[in-house]
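Re: that chain you flagged

S.,

Sorry for the slow reply, it's been a week of failed gels. I finally had a moment to sit down with the sequence you sent. For the record, here it is as I used it:
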Amino acid sequence: MDDLVKRVLNGDRRAAARMISLIENDEEAKNELMSKIYPCTGHAYIIGITGSPGAGKSSLTDKLVGEIRRGGLTVAIIAIDPTSPFTGGAILGDRIRMQSHALDAEVFIRSMGTRGSLGGLSHATNEAAKVMDALKKDIIIIETVGVGQSEFDIMHIANSTLVVLTPGAGDAIQTIKAGIMEIADIFVVNKSDLDGADRVKMEVEVMLDMKQIDGWRPPVVPTVSLNGKGVQELWLKIMEHKSFLESSGLLLKQRKKRLREEVREIVEHEIRKHVWTAVEKSGEMDKLVAQMMQREMDPYTAAKRLIAAHLQFR
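Prediction finished late last night. Pasting the C-alpha cells below so you have them in one place:
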C-alpha cells in the first residue's frame, strides 16, 4: 500500500489507475489509501461539465483540454458514463472522443460508471479527483452523465460548473424549468453554428436579467466543438471565474463547506455499509419482508428495528 501511494505521488499513471479501481470497488484499503494521499491534495482546480445527453460535452471537453495544454497546464479528465441497471456494465465510450490526447503524458483520462449513483456522478468521483490531485494535475475536468434534473451533484465537487446547452432541442427552457440555472457558473451554447443558437443565448440572458445576482454573473459563451470555435474564450471565462472566487474569498469558503459535506457523506456511507453488511449476514431481512408481506409489520418499524439492532441507538 505504501508503495502504491509513493508511486502515485511520484506521478505514476498506472499506480493512479490502480488506486482509482480500488476506490471504485470500495476495497477495505480504500480509506487508508485516501488518508495517506490527503496531505498532498488541495492544489488542483476542478471544472464540472454538465448538460443533457447529446449536447456535445465530450467533444467540447476534448477541445477545452487542447486549449489548457497550450497554456502548459496538466489535465486529468473523469468521464462519467451511465451504468446499465440490468447488466451493471457501462460503455465507457467518452475516451473515443478524446483520442487526440490519448498519447499526451500530461493528460490522464479515466472513464467511470455511475454504478447506481444518482445525480450524474459516480459515488467514487470525489475520491478519484483526489487521486488525480495527488498525481499533481493542475486542472481536473469532470464530465457528468447528462441526466437532466438529477445533475446537481456536480456543484458539490467542481469549483467552476459549466452547463452545456444546444439549439433546436428546447434545452434552454428545459434547463430553466429543471432548476439547473442555479448551478451554472458559465453557460455554454454548444453547436452554435446551428440555427437557433442566438435564440438559446438570448433566452438564457433574459433569465439572468430576471434573476437577482450578487457578485458573479454567469457569462453565456457560444462554442462549436467540431472546430474549436469559442473554446479559447470559454477557457478565459473559466479563469476569470477562478480569479473571482480567489479574490472574493469564496474559493476558501467553498472548500470549507465541501469538507463538512464530505465528512457527512463518508459517515452516511460507512453507516449504510455497516448496517447492510450485518443485515445480510444475519438473514434478518427475509424474516422482516415475510412479516411485511403479511402486514404484520410496516417498513418504518422494520427500518427502526434494524437501526436499533445494529447501531445501538433508537
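What I noticed first: The longest helix spans residues 250-282.

Talk soon,
D.
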